[in-house]
Specification:
mainly alpha, 5 helices, 87% helix, 0% strand
């Protein structure tokens, strides 16, 4: 079975990442979408560059590693009880809903924005639907991170 030494930081990391994503879905993207398109796109490009640095990457992928270790501990520890099922649910929610959505949805949207020349018609076309789609997928990541944090924390009480 997986111990609290892995589950607690996995739960905290899941909640932390969900909180960062919540800030973006809750108000940052709304603010960017209210700017003139070239200004909003430039600001989002700057955010995307700043995001790929150790603070967010460590939280995002370090938590994924902890979730994977926690799930592996459950799967190799014998019969899965209620606590183990919650660990598996939390790890699954994080790995699929946070990491999977990041890789499959948000990063490709960011790449399309980065590839469009600033101030060009291509940029305007990308930006026209970017904030809505990006925010929708980011909200999925937010909810998945919160669900993961709750399930992992709940596993400690089960």
């Amino acid at each position: 079975m997986t111990g609290a030494a892995v589950v607690v930081p996995a739960a905290v990391g899941s909640g932390l990442v969900a909180g960062v994503f919540y800030g973006f879905s809750g108000f940052v993207m709304r603010a960017l979408s209210g700017l003139p398109p070239a200004t909003g796109a430039a600001a989002m490009r700057a955010v995307n560059v700043a995001a790929v640095r150790p603070p967010l990457m460590t939280a995002l992928f370090g938590t994924a590693l902890l979730d994977g270790v926690a799930a592996a501990g459950v799967l190799t520890g014998g019969p899965v009880d209620r606590s183990g099922a919650l660990v598996l649910a939390g790890a699954g929610a994080y790995l699929a809903g946070v990491v999977g959505v990041t890789v499959a949805a948000n990063v490709p949207l960011n790449d399309r924005l980065a590839a469009a020349a600033p101030g060009s018609p291509a940029e305007a076309a990308v930006w026209a639907g970017y904030t809505r789609r990006w925010t929708r997928w980011n909200t999925v990541r937010t909810v998945a991170g919160a669900v993961a944090a709750a399930a992992l924390a709940g596993s400690l009480a089960a």
